[in-house]
Amino acid sequence: MASKDAMITVYGRATSSNVQAVMWAIAELGLDHERLDYGGRHGGTDTPEFLAMNPNGLVPVVRDGDHVPMFEAGAIMRTLATAYGSAPFWPAEPYERAPVDMWAEWAKTTACAAFTGPIFWAVVRTPKEKQDPGAIARAVERFDRVLAIAEDRLSKNRYLAGDDFTMADIQFGHILYRYFDIDITRPSRPALEAYYERLTERPAYRDHVMVSYDELKA
């Protein structure tokens, strides 16, 4: 296991949902860290120095001591969890880890993809006069079909991969603050709502995810 003595540096603005997920994971792992404002109105992602770390010019980027800089939030979190985490958050044994990894991947590729662009960007980052209410309603309906899967899981377990908090909850839960906060009509999902309330009780969630997104509003 890696040493926790090295300072982890996160390059990325606090209002980036991917940065929020990484910061939440770092906080849950209890790692010494600093976050530097990059991206969005802060700029800095088009410099040669930043592009040398991430040629895509996107946040987050993470440096852990002298190790190679990391980009892509999911890869960053898996690496940090492998280096510093333990069961049940991120089990070392591959088949014990598999349910956590599967639900984390589902959250990233299915749930987040169905919410961030089609709903959050369409509602918050698009001027009112350019919004398409019908398209937003259809996107919410499609997303609710995804949430139905989570509802079924959470009606049987306290958390997404089982009864313990794991990295899968970070990948999924970091979008729920915005989902429950934005101005849309949400179908009732009692188990999901209770799960969200449990997440809001976690200090790391309040510190790094329940962050104002006013600067992102159109």
Write up what this structure looks like.
It is a single chain. The protein has 218 residues and is an alpha+beta fold. Helices cover 52% and strands 6% of the residues. The protein has nine helices and four strands; from the N terminus they run βαβαββααααααα. It has helices at 17-29, 48-53, 73-84, 94-124, 133-154, 167-173, 176-181, 190-200, 203-208, and strands at 8-11, 33-36, 61-64, 70-71. The chain has a four-stranded mixed β-sheet, with helices on one face. Helix 1 packs parallel to helix 3, helix 4 (94-124) packs antiparallel against helix 5 (133-154) and helix 5 crosses helix 8. The radius of gyration is 17 Å and the shape is globular. The termini are far apart. The model has no long low-confidence stretch (mean pLDDT 96).
